[in-house]
Write a structure and sequence with these properties.
This protein is an alpha/beta fold and about 475 residues long. The protein has one domain: Amidase signature (AS) domain (Amidase signature (AS) enzymes), CATH 3.90.1300. About 40% of the residues lie in helices and about 15% in strands. It is built from 16 helices and eleven strands. The longest helix is centred in the C-terminal third of the chain and has 25 residues, at about 370-390. The radius of gyration is 21 Å and the shape is globular. It starts with 7 loop residues before the first helix and ends with a helix. About 55% of the residues are buried. Bound molecules: glutamine (GLN).
């Protein structure tokens, strides 16, 4: 879709030439939000606050003391908390909840003068691949409103796709940034596990979850990552490393790139996505990279392994929603036990309940070894086999998804079909390595975007972005 601005550089240029003011920019995005309200991307728009921030930051720019993100208007997924604002993870169970603190990522962005324009719709507790599991209704793909935008960060994707803000934050546990980025024609990054603080991210599966950006340009992605990454004392699972250095070079040195043959040969892969991948492979060869097909015979084990482990973690993480301390409490509750039971029964949606039950089952003493322990071993195997690839290659290439954006309702009654939407994306989360989805082509039959995925070794985000940039040139 046409956008007025696709990078902060363009906005800063216009601001500096006095062709644009920050209040005008905020008005522009607010008017787009109004026009596209029916897409249901936003759960709340911080209209007044955004206008006030525009005045303050606009003044800072003219006085030459503005932060690195001055001029950037972003949206945040509804599972990232922001002090004094509601956060519901698109669930009824968090109805009325307002956070007493801000996520580390929010604080870091605000410190650089970002403007947060609102919070975006998503699948409930980030569980889903179509944004149809939100308690606040589905989000529509702006390119074809009969189709899903992907999930779970569908609202963040559509907010950027339809030019309602310049960039957005999402979270990715098994593909929730990359798959919607592919379905809406954007850049979306799952950063190395442990480089972005999870403090203030409402947990789904803690050993997989990372926050990451959606952008329309490589430069904005690099800039946002350079600000949101880096150790944080509130998150003990982080690497003790400073923020990632995100230099984008126009000079591209030859890389060794592996593509996974099992992905390209997969029966579920759309033929047009297969041929787009093949075109990309020849393009990369022409650019002087060494590209080779490799076998990775674990493809069909990855989604089941992911489901066992993430549901186990979710069942434990979501036990805190009891109806007692915060969020929704059933009006029909009469004692402690009925408060738990009724609040959770009424507060959680179907998919969340399915996952809590599955997770509780795989953790139960009779089945723990058969499912949970086994899945942990498979995760270790997938991680080590993935890292082995990086002994010989710099990058792994796959399509981001096996199909383009599907129709609303197409998979919603078949959870297994929906889970397979994550076929190519869960590998990065299982291995904890960075993965970028970038817009590569347009599907010749339906005009929908096709996204490609680049995975690299830990901390290789800048290299992945450099490669994506050189492909776009
Ligand atoms: N679609 C995947 C799932 O349903 C991924 C979700 C996510 O990354 N948050 O679990």
């Amino acid at each position: 879709m046409e956008k007025r601005f696709s990078s902060l550089t363009q906005i800063r240029q216009q601001l500096s030439e006095a062709k644009l003011t920050l209040p005008e920019l905020v008005d522009y995005y607010l008017s787009r939000i109004e026009v596209y309200r029916h897409l249901n991307a936003f759960l709340e728009v911080f209209e007044q606050e955004a206008r006030e921030a525009a005045a303050v930051i606009g003044k800072k720019i003219s006085e030459g003391r503005a932060g690195k993100l001055a001029g950037m208007v972003i949206a945040i997924k509804d599972n990232i908390v922001y002090k004094g604002h509601a956060s519901t993870a698109s669930s009824k169970i968090l109805q009325g909840f307002e956070s007493l603190f801000s996520a580390t990522v929010v604080e870091r962005l605000l410190a650089e003068d970002v403007i947060i324009i609102g919070r975006t719709n998503c699948d409930e507790f980030a569980m889903g691949a179509s944004n149809e599991n939100s308690a606040y209704g589905p989000v529509l793909n702006a390119l074809d409103e009969s189709r899903v935008p992907g999930g779970s960060s569908g609202g963040s994707a559509v907010a950027v796709q339809a030019d309602m803000c310049l960039a957005a934050l999402g979270s990715d546990t098994g593909g929730s940034i990359r798959q919607p980025a592919a379905f809406t024609g954007l850049y979306g990054m799952y950063p190395t596990y442990g480089v972005v603080s999870r403090w203030g991210l409402i947990a789904f599966a803690s050993s997989f979850d990372q926050i990451g950006p959606f952008t329309s340009s490589v430069s904005d992605m690099a800039l946002l990552l350079s600000i949101i990454t880096g150790a944080d004392e509130h998150d003990a699972t982080m690497y003790q490393r400073p923020a990632l250095q995100m230099e984008i070079n126009t000079e591209q040195k030859p890389l060794r790139i592996a593509y996974i043959k099992d992905c390209l040969e997969h029966e579920g892969l759309d033929p047009q996505i297969r041929s787009a991948t093949e075109t990309l492979i020849s393009k990369l060869e022409q650019k002087g990279h060494e590209v080779k097909g490799i076998g990775f015979p674990y493809l069909d084990n990855m989604v089941p392994c992911y489901q066992v482990l993430t549901t186990a973690e979710a069942s434990s993480n979501l036990s805190r929603f009891s109806g007692l301390t915060y969020g929704y409490r059933s009006a029909a509750a009469t004692d402690l036990e009925s408060t738990f039971k009724k609040s959770r029964t009424e507060g959680f949606g179907t998919e969340v309940k399915r996952r809590i039950m599955l997770g509780t089952f795989v953790l139960s003493s009779d089945y723990y070894d058969a499912y949970y322990t086994k899945a942990q071993k498979i995760r270790q195997l997938i991680r080590s086999k993935t890292l082995d690839i990086f002994k010989d290659f710099d990058v792994i290439l796959t399509p981001t998804t096996s199909t383009p954006a599907f129709k609303i309702g197409e998979k919603s009654s078949n959870p297994v079909a929906m889970y397979l939407a994550d076929l190519f994306t869960v590998q990065a989360n299982l291995a904890g390595i960075p993965a970028l989805s970038f817009p590569y082509a347009t599907h010749p039959e339906n005009g929908l975007p096709i996204g490609m995925q680049l995975m690299g070794n830990s901390f290789s985000e800048a290299m992945l972005l450099n490669l994506a940039q050189s492909i776009a040139e």
